[in-house]
Amino acid sequence: MRHLIDEFRNETAWLPAWLVSFGVLAAAFFIGLMIHRIAFRFFSRVVEKRDLFWRSLVSRGRRPLRLAILTWTLSLGATVAPLTSDQASIIRHVLFLGFVLVVGWTARTALHIWMTVYLRRFKLDAEDNLLARTHVTQSRILERIAQVLIIGVTIAMMLLTFPAVQQYGVSLLASAGVAGIVLGLALQPVLKNVFAGIQLAITQPIRIDDALIVEGEWGNVEEITSTYVVVKLWDWRRMILPLSYFIEQPFQNWTREGAALIGTVMIYLDYSVPVEAIRRKVEEIVAGSTLWDKRVVAVQVTDFRETTMEVRILASANNAPKVFDLRCEIREKLIEFIQREYRHGLPRVRTEGAADPNGAMATEMLRHSSLQA
Questions:
Q1: Domains of the chain
Q2: What pLDDT digit, counting tens, does each position of 165-190 carry?
Q3: Structure pTM?
Q4: Which of 62, 168, 259, 336 pairs with 305 at a CA distance of 20 to 30 A?
């Protein structure tokens, strides 16, 4: 191989060195593009009948593969071209950076494809999706943490190829104590969220699509990243909260152990309304509703007040949106029933007249004095 390179250089010695180098590197570049096209077609045919992971890996790995092949062909071209030692050193350095970038890029792409294929088996739109939400949440958090690590290691490997950075790294190790304290203080918010993400992935106080009440707002967990959580509120607003919030602050999780919930409807009625009639009507309403899961329905008198009695109605549904709609349906149909059948049963203020003894006595005295006159 070395003999062929020397022979090529002797044959082109009459040309300017820069022109030969440019021509060799340009030829290496175009040869790399041709090899990439052939290789991509070959791999596409090989995985044509394979599972989704391999087909996606070839499709998404097209650009990393191109960069890898170009790095290889250009490195061969740099070996053949009549470059000075400084020029060859610079080109080898750039090509090594490209190689490290290809490795990190490929690892990140393969991780994302594998996780996407793995999560396809879980359906978040199912009625009872607790298992799916558990796997999706854990997998996405761990994927994002792994992606951050891959990117960090790739950047570190690229920076360590520079002598100045290597010298700085040695100095940093020599003063690891002070530097560690300074770096820890500077990165405290980032590290806090990273460790909170690991804790969330293990303990899972929240999951994707969980129904939460945070900061007095109701919503569903829409996205969990490596540093923050996106909660989609009922009116389509988005609340952005850091991961550490769900470790340090109290919040309500309505779907922690399951999606099914019991909804409450409070109504205040006059004492003259028969409770049994209300109970029968509520049972009729929920039995005819497609939102009820046929598990819980109850009507209870929970309090007596000065002018009304407090009636609590309980009904269950498969998830939080259905519970809300079921409560609204019960209210609408029950108030229509009361207006029609027990109009007097709505809360009212009673006023009753009573005889005034003092007033009656004064009237009698006035009548007696008029008779004397």
A1: 2-121 (no CATH), 156-255 (2.30.30.60), 261-345 (3.30.70.100)
A2: 666 655 555 554 555 555 555 556 66
A3: 0.56
A4: 336
